[in-house]
């Protein structure tokens, strides 16, 4: 069984920055695949989507840690 990979997709939708966290069975994600995930998540299908950036999240998701600049990194 292949392990699911997590990716963080950052993008601009109609001049508003957005992010989307997804899980995929693929080891990498290209811009076209990320755009499909963005289109599925957005209600406005005619929205202008630009500046797509994809980052692989390789650490396990820890529900006890919330993002913030005041926290020290784990490990």
Number of discrete helical segments: 1
How much of the residues is beta strand, in percent? Answer: 35-45%
Strands of the widest sheet, in order across it, are 2-1-3
Number of domains: 1
Uncertain stretches of 5 or more adjacent residues: none
What value does the average pLDDT take?
80
Could you say which structural class the secondary elements and strand pairing correspond to? alpha+beta
What is the number of E strands?
3
Please give the largest β-sheet. Answer: 3 strands, antiparallel
Q: What's the SSE pattern?
A: EEHE
- Please compute the radius of gyration using only Cα atoms: 14 Å
Spatial separation of the terminal alpha carbons: 28 Å
The helix content, as a percent range, equals 10-25%
Question: What gross morphology would you assign?
Answer: globular
Polypeptide structure, described:
By secondary structure, this protein is an alpha+beta fold. It has one domain (5-57). Helices cover 15% and strands 36% of the residues. The chain is built from 1 helix and 3 strands; from the N terminus they run ββαβ. It has one helix spanning 31-41; strands at residues 5-13, 16-24, 49-57. It has a 3-stranded antiparallel β-sheet with strand order 2-1-3, covered by helices on one side. Strand 1 (5-13) and strand 2 form a beta hairpin. The longest helix has 11 residues, at 31-41. The radius of gyration is 14 Å and the shape is globular. The two termini are 28 Å apart. The model has no long low-confidence stretch (mean pLDDT 80).
Short description:
With 75 residues, this protein is α+β, with helices and mostly antiparallel strands.
